[in-house]
Amino acid sequence: MGFVLQYTGADNPFLPEKLEELSFYSIKENGNPLEGLKTLGFYVNIIDMGHNPKAYFPITFEAEVFVKLPKQMIEGKNYTFKSYGLGETDIDVTFTWSDKNVLSEAIKVNQIGYLSDAKIRLAYFGKWLGTAGPLEFIPQSYEVIDLNSGKIVYTGIPELRYSAGQKNEGAYQLDFSGENVYGLDLIHLKKGVYCISIPGVGRSYSFCVADNVMAEPLFTSIRALYHQRCGIELGEKYTFWTRPKCKKHIKLLMMPEYHFEYCSKLPNNIFEQVDQFLEQREGNLKYKIVKGGYHDAGDYDRNPYHLRIANVLCTAYDINPEAFIDEQFIIPESGNAIPDILDEADFLLSFYLENQWQDGGIPSGTESNKHPKNLNKNAWLTNTENEINEYVILPVTQMSCFDFAAGAAHLGLELQASPEVKDKSDKYIYAAEKAFECGMKNFPPENLEEQLMAAHAAARLLAVTLKHEYADIIKTFEDVLNQKKDYLNPAVLWFVSAYLSIPKNTPGLDIEFQNSLKKNVSDTWNWALNKFFLKEGYLHFKHPWAPFTNGTGSVGQADLIILAWIITGNEHLLDMIKVTADFCLGANPLGKVMCSGLGQNHILHPLVLESMNDDIKEYVPGIWVYGPIGNKEHWLQKQYESIPSFDEIPLLYRYIDIDQCPMHTEFTVQETLCKAVMLFGILAPSNPEIYSKPIPKPD
Ligand SMILES: [Ca+2]
Ligand SMILES: [Ca+2]
Ligand SMILES: [Ca+2]
Fold first, then answer.
1. Which CATH number describes the domain made up of 215-626+666-683?
2. 2: left (phi over 0), alpha (psi -120 to 50) or beta
3. Which ligand sits closest to the CA of 671?
4. Domain with CATH 1.50.10.10 in the chain
5. What mean pLDDT do residues 44-62 have?
6. DSSP code for 585
7. Does the pLDDT of residue 630 top 90, yes or no?
8. Cα(298) to centroid of ligand 2, in Å?
9. CA of 301 to the centre of ligand 1 (A)
10. Protein residues near ligand 1, an ion, with CB under 5 A
11. Fewer CB near the last or first residue (10 Å), C or N of the chain?
């Protein structure tokens, strides 16, 4: 049993020697004190922070103290739990014990629902108890209760999938959860609404099994992109989380087209570079009125990587076109006869299209010389209304030319299916050709990485234009053709998926090369599937070599396994994609949906400046945060040390839900938000209905 104590102030009051002291806790059974309680251990960490008027203050500390009862609780008896003098408020709770009614956080389920056609459907039992290590309780059985009839429809035996300390997860032989992980198989369930109950433990959150369970995650996730739109007002017709036009992002100074001369990517010190440019500005300054594209994350730049979002959205559409219609996501373009997901890709690319240079060059986005600030010293009080930053339109790079070419060619291809927007489709394809030409002329790709970017664009252009010249260009990329490649690498997978999308009879297409790429991806992923993914306690896709960062505990890498599945057709990869969705939706060690506003127990404080500084308590929904960051300690974690210390916390528990901790609660449109759209989009049901319900309201 866990006592949860909280304190909000400046210093952590939860000292180990006090927390261990049994006299602070009492438990009664039907009014009679239970003797022989034992404190097993505790977990103390920061869980929230204020930011107004002072940053990082006040701090809410939480101590979870795990107390063992002398015997199991008995169905129907009343239990009273008291704790005095430890936290801010004392605990005095009485309830009637029933393992069918009392919620247990040791049972983790996909809180939205499992797909009815999934071949693997798992919930999990396990819990890490802080200084006490793994929960040692061995569950003997579990029951699945149909919540419509109240009847037990399935009884099963939990299967030990992983023992704490076994250390065989991922390529670095790690222990992801620190738990003894038991699998609770749900494969025998028919469609319906259920919860799981474990004798002596309690019940899970409710979940359903249905064909359409991924529709809601898709809806919530793609609308987060709408909320990140730059240069427009977010109006009442579309959302409760409204805001006026972001005024500092409308009229922007242009940096010269080739300000950085030959460069593959923007320099790393971009703030300094922009700062220098703003300092030294003089004479003939050129301003442009712009819109389109997204705010990157908690900040407002259009990051150079955003161009890749177009291919992510278009690929989701390619894979599962029946799941997407017009009037699906309540955006300004709902009702224009184009599927709303393609409107989103169009809104993104429109910024780059409108600002393409005469010779085809594509700006790398927009940036300021610092993170968002307001007149107040406390930068966390910034929003788009009080921001004082100045932004510029960034110069052209090799990456911006080729990435735009790849995205615009892809969107142009999708739009060809809608005759009413032939002009728009033609415009994108023409702009893609110009951008590619500019890239080849000014930034001829030299190494494998650069050639992969160019080859990806050429393959997309070949697929839509069927022009032999693009096939010929790919044949000049020696490194792409001959060098040994890592088929788990994103750039390789994106190129291969594009090259395999080229229609069979296209002039110049190298079928043998297509086949060899497919075989290599197939071999690599088969190997990785058996060597890594299937050995995890909590099944989910995580790139075997990647450290726990930037979305590893969330949706961030879903595109890779989706591409591998599409390239190879290996159905086991599709099974792994589905369990990855389950994992993100709550079937993970924290037992939380790693997205705001989705599911019954979800993260609460994503780093969104608008939500941090508006009058609505609930943060804007659909923000998929990076999640647990295992490889690096944030300075807040160093300053307010947890017990046990950071190094002793299992990797997938290393998360603090604090909006001023960017490593954990930040996100980006490119790294996490669009990947969520792809993951849930390819699993979403066919033939969705036009959205006619009211728009989602804050709680
Ligand atoms: Ca940024
Ligand atoms: Ca539409
Ligand atoms: Ca708020």
1. 1.50.10.10
2. beta
3. 1
4. 215-626+666-683
5. 98
6. T
7. no
8. 27
9. 5
10. 296, 299, 301
11. C
